[in-house]
Amino acid sequence: MDQDVATIRPDNMFDGGDLDCGSGLILLIREAMSSVPEGGILEMRSREPTVADDLPPWCRMSGHEYLGKSSAEGYTRYFMKKGAGADEEEAALEEDKNEARNYQWRLRARVTGHLKSTIYARNFSFEIGQPASFEEKDAHPSALEYLFGALAGSLTTGFASECARADLEIDDIEISLNGSLHNVLAHLGIEEGDPSIKAVEITCFASSFDDEARIKSAWQRTLERSPLYATLAKSTEVTARITIV
What CATH class has 12-101? Predict the structure, then answer.
């Protein structure tokens, strides 16, 4: 415990789950701080270790007073006193929101070999193989496997974050996904037809002894907040179910 924070009674509290300060947590802190009066105290709960290093300097730069932290079972409680300059903070919140609304994801793609393209995004790259393959092994995943993998990965990560923010204890999360096209031969250029995705079946397996209704509610929120799921569900048949084991 940094200082004696055991007796603090916060004016507002929210759970940041496992988000770090670069993944939208600062935006959530500013949103929660907007309902705290000047001189009032905000408690933020987090399961992300890097917050301990990143939060104090952010408070100093934002004009808030970092009061300290205390450990609880499975998470850390952080306490911040709201500083003066509510107008500046409100402006910063609106600026953060506008930047988030207008953010664009950028990448480049180049052919870098036989039946191979390389994608360059931010500080990393990954390789995509041939359009479709029915072999058991290939050097690189296909574009469809990346798409389906991105969907499944966004749901597992998103669901874990939703459970953390809801203070749900989940031992393991795994998703099984099956995807099919209307006509894969059209995709391969063998015949005319519809190459679009026909159906996607998603089953999430969550290992937990926690409340089943709350877990299912967190799963539903995950689906509603997933850009990939929301987009695909508008254009194709997507079924998503959860099994708690």
Answer: alpha beta
